[in-house]
């Protein structure tokens, strides 16, 4: 027998009895609307959610006490109101919980649904709940289906409201390092507008916030809230259908490849702190259970090395030159780790993919951590070129082969310029990190403007297709080829720039370093560093990079571990000079280079960007 027969409950029309229900309804609506601030109007319906922490804050014990006292029109016996209220609070907050149900019915202050909720509690608390004609639902019943609504006694006129809004009240909770397969109707716990960070070769990266209470981390073999008090800011790398650029099968393939590379890196017995691993991943499934999008979750960096190189405000005043060189050594060490311990090629090393995390300190306490990121083009060293068919998420490391082909990039080695003729090896990555080293050196010595100027000077115009790409080298199918001998090295034993065949399975090309790059290195050493103690350190870096790294024949390049050692030795000397500068004095480097005197340069107008002219006297 239902308690409703003994205890009259109603939704009163009086101001006093409505105030608490209306106040809670308004609080719930406000909390939900805060999650879609700055979101486009047409996207708000699919992004609204009620964070768990907000639910607990609004439907606390005291607010429920006031609500149920208002909904009770009178006690069955004098002095028993408190007992009946407490029992209903316990039925709402206990296990299984019914907080989500109550929040959904309060959200638009639907009196008939609130009355039904009280009826369910009456039946639940009755001495014979089995006599109740309907199934008594709980939060576990969400999401409702048409069938479960009928058997719970929900009038059909409310079904549409529930179907349209129930996802709001049960957003997904993400667990660290887990892969989540989410139905399209479920609500992901991201709040606010997702802000684009950068487009990528395999997926776009967005800044997102995970609602507080919806990120869990593992502790003592269990999952506990990882962000109980505030949203967690993360970066999402998103893989989806992008019209003519990439279909969903290709997006799924790219996602699987990168996910499996990251899993293998994480599961290796040896870890490296300067390699950025994911925090977890998500696949959103459509009605037919096929993927409609994927994403990888990462810690959000303060900025990328590319941002740092180009923004003088970021780069000045915080970090010593030797410190920057140390961070670069860390990246080369991470690359050596990938090559020698994990047999993995990165194949996309560039400033955009080196992320910088600040520690938040001030002055001498300020520090940075540089991390190598984005394994969208990575593959195993021994892997053969894979096909383009889509693979299941259970794909093993044997499927990790990936062709290193794409449009030419400025940091890309000559041997992977031509599509479908990739000859990527360990030293392919070494070329890329050598190019990055020169950009960092430009920043260290001359500042951000020099970085931008150097990059703009490296534009290469190809003869056959009239395309233009910035590259650190030129080929014999470019307009610049006839100027390849325009500049000499003034700091290498071989003064004349070399040319060599590019290792390739396709057409054979000659290549040489970009003459403007050689010009820049001479000017950097003999003008920007003239009569400065650190000239000797810059000289050593240029001798390593131009003499041992940026070689067209990849077999003449250093391996990553050897490059790391050479740069580390230079870094230690530079750091010692910064610690005790009085112990160092300027030494004329022309003597060591067997030059009669330091060369004098005359900069032609727009020397880096104009036609090549001999800069040396």
Please give a structural write-up:
The protein has about 625 residues and is an alpha+beta fold. The protein folds into three domains: about 5-170, no CATH class; about 175-300, Phosphorylase Kinase, domain 1; about 405-590, no CATH class. The protein has 18 helices and 19 strands. It has helices at about 15-35, 50-60, 60-70, 80-95, 100-105, 110-125, 145-150, 160-165, 250-265, 305-310, 310-315, 320-340, 425-445, 450-455, 515-530, 535-550, 560-580, 590, and strands spanning about 175, 180-185, 190-200, 205-210, 215-220, 220-225, 230-240, 280-285, 290-300, 305, 345, 355-360, 370, 380, 460, 470, 475, 500, 510-515. The strands form six sheets. The chain has a six-stranded mixed sheet. Helix 12 (about 320-340) packs antiparallel against helix 17 (about 560-580). It is elongated and about 105 Å long. Keywords: Kinase, Transferase. This is Serine threonine kinase. Pfam families: Pkinase.
């Amino acid at each position: 027998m239902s308690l409703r027969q003994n205890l009259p409950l109603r939704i009163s029309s009086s101001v006093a009895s409505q105030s608490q229900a209306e106040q809670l309804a308004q609080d719930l609506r406000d909390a939900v609307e805060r999650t879609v601030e700055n979101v486009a109007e047409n996207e708000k319906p699919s992004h609204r959610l009620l964070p768990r922490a907000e639910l607990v804050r609004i439907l606390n014990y005291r607010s429920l006490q006031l609500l149920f006292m208002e909904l009770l029109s009178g006690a069955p016996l004098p002095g028993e109101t408190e007992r009946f209220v407490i029992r209903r609070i316990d039925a709402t907050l206990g296990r299984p919980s019914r907080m989500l149900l109550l929040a959904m019915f309060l959200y638009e202050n639907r009196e008939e649904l609130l009355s039904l909720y009280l009826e369910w509690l009456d039946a639940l608390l009755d001495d014979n709940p089995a006599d109740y004609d309907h199934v008594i639902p709980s939060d576990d019943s969400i999401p409702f289906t048409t069938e479960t609504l009928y058997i719970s006694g929900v009038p059909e006129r409310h079904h549409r409201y529930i179907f349209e809004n129930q996802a709001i009240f049960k957003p997904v909770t993400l667990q660290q390092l887990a892969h989540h397969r989410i139905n399209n109707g479920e609500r992901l716990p991201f709040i606010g507008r997702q802000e684009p960070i950068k487009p990528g070769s395999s997926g776009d990266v967005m800044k997102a916030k995970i609602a507080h209470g919806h990120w869990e981390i593992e502790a003592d073999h269990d999952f506990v809230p990882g962000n109980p008090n505030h949203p967690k800011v993360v970066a999402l790398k998103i893989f989806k259908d992008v019209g003519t650029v990439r279909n969903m099968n290709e997006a799924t393939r790219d996602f699987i490849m990168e996910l499996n590379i990251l899993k293998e890196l994480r599961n290796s017995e040896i870890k490296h702190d300067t390699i950025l691993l994911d925090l977890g991943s998500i696949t959103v499934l459509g009605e037919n259970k096929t993927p409609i999008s994927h994403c990888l979750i990462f810690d959000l960096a303060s900025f990328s090395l590319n941002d740092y190189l180009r923004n003088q405000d970021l780069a000045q005043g915080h970090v010593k030159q030797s410190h920057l060189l140390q961070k670069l050594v860390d990246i080369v060490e991470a690359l050596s780790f990938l090559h020698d311990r994990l047999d993995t090629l990165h194949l996309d090393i560039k400033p955009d993919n080196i992320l910088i995390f600040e520690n938040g300190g001030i002055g001498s306490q300020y520090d940075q951590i540089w991390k190598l990121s984005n394994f969208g083009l990575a593959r195993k060293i021994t892997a053969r070129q894979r096909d383009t068919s889509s693979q299941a998420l259970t794909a093993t490391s044997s499927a990790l082969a990936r062709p290193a082909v794409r449009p030419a990039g400025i940091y890309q080695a000559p041997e992977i310029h031509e599509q479908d003729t990739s000859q990527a090896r360990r030293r392919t990555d070494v070329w890329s990190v050598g190019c990055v080293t020169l950009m960092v050196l430009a920043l260290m010595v001359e500042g951000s403007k020099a970085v931008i100027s150097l990059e703009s000077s490296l534009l290469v115009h190809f003869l056959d297709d009239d395309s233009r790409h910035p590259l650190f080298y030129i080929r014999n199918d470019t307009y610049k080829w006839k100027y390849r001998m325009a500049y000499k090295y003034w700091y290498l034993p071989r003064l004349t720039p070399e040319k060599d065949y590019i290792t390739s399975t396709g057409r054979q090309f000659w290549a040489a370093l970009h003459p403007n790059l050689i010009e820049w290195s001479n000017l950097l050493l003999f003008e920007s560093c003239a009569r400065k103690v650190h000239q000797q350190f810059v000289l050593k870096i240029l001798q390593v990079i131009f003499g041992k790294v940026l070689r067209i024949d990849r077999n003449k390049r250093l391996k990553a571990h050897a490059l790391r050692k050479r740069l580390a030795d230079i870094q230690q000397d530079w750091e010692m000079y910064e610690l005790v500068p009085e112990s160092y004095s300027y030494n004329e480097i022309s003597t060591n280079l067997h030059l009669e005197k330091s060369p004098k340069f005359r900069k032609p107008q727009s020397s880096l960007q104009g036609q090549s002219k001999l800069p040396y006297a």
